[in-house]
Amino acid sequence: MTNLKFFITQSRPITTLNQKNTKKIKNLKNISIWASGNGSNAENIIKYFNNHKKIRIDHIICNNSKAGVIECAQRLNIDCFVFSKKDFSEGNAVLNKIIERKTNYIILSGFLQMVPTNIINKFPNAIINIHPALLPDFGGKGMYGNHVHEAVINAKKNESGITIHLVDEIYDHGKIIFQKKCKINKNETPESLAKKIHKLEYKYFPKVIENFILT
Prior knowledge:
Elements: E1 5-6, H1 22-26, E2 29-35, H2 40-48, E3 55-62, H3 68-76, E4 79-82, H4 85-89, H5 93-100, E5 105-108, H6 117-122, E6 127-131, H7 146-154, E7 159-166, E8 176-183, H8 190-214
Parallel strand pairs: 2-3, 2-5, 3-4, 5-6
Antiparallel strand pairs: 1-4, 6-7, 7-8
């Protein structure tokens, strides 16, 4: 039996979309945001697409019952579903939920678990991830957050950045759709580099998602 938890008792009222008729609402592309942490990127994406005419953030999927993104979802009135890690790796509980929600695209926003093969197969070229480095370097299992920034600095690189890519069966391996660089200073620390990377994420991730979906 799944350990699904539903943290919002009612779905968002349709009126929050500011659409003038139900036909337009039916034509919206529904996004499922997946997150494991505090949800700062998720919040930025949700706010960007608020009242968008063609794209709707329908819900959040989380694999960490203590994640800050849950509070973020509650505050922004977004449905949030929490599954155990086992639910992601076994069975179809997660797949069934996103199908039930009529999901068109999945956005990984700090999601720290491999996406199950059954979901990748069901959503080909429709799962987008952001990575805090310039892939193909500094990617793979365990390379997230400050682990990435520490590795980049220890390698004495003079630049880092963000990579936005499609998701396949290998960590940080899918087709790259966008990259943006930033300079690394002589006295850079993982914390200061993280701030630079976050700025790039906040500025570009929503725009790249929008462009990918609408073109």
